[in-house]
Each structure stands twice: as C-alpha cells, then as structure tokens.
Amino acid sequence: MSKKQKNKTVADNLLLDILSCPDCKSDVGMVKAKIVCKKCGKKYSIVNGIPVMLIGEADK
User: Please, what is the Cα angle at 13 between 11 and 17, to 5 degrees?
Assistant: First the structure.
C-alpha cells in the first residue's frame, strides 16, 4: 500500500469515527463505497468524495 493510500485510509477511518446516522444517530461504517448505519442499515452515497447523508436520499 502506498503512502497516499495509507493516508486516505486513515482519513476515511477518522471521518467514520465522527459521523453518525442522521436518522437513528448510531455509528456508521463503509461498505462497497457507501456509508452504512450499523443499527438501522440505511445506506448513504458518496458523491465526488463527499458523503450525502440526507435521510430522504438514503437507501434501505
């Protein structure tokens, strides 16, 4: 893994540590390029590197 890839992984993990599901306020994780709530299962897209965490835009 290159230094750039390591830095991106660290940044992604730091972001996931501070984000929470806007609907149920639970922790989230990353699954197949989407942010997924660990409790309710809602999936939030990432568009151009920006998480779109709007309840109305979430996939179930």
Answer: 115
Structural domains in the chain, sorted by start: 3-57 (2.20.25)
Which residues on neighbouring strands pair with residue 40, listed in sequence order?
A: none
Assign 1 a pLDDT band (cuts: 50, 70, 90).
confident
pLDDT, one tens digit per residue, over 2-51 is 766 655 676 788 999 999 999 999 999 999 999 999 999 999 999 998 99
Question: How many whole angstroms separate alpha carbon 43 and alpha carbon 38?
Answer: 10
Cα 2 to chain centroid distance, Å, stands at: 22
SS3 category, 41: coil
Q: How far apart are CA 7 and CA 57, in angstroms?
A: 29
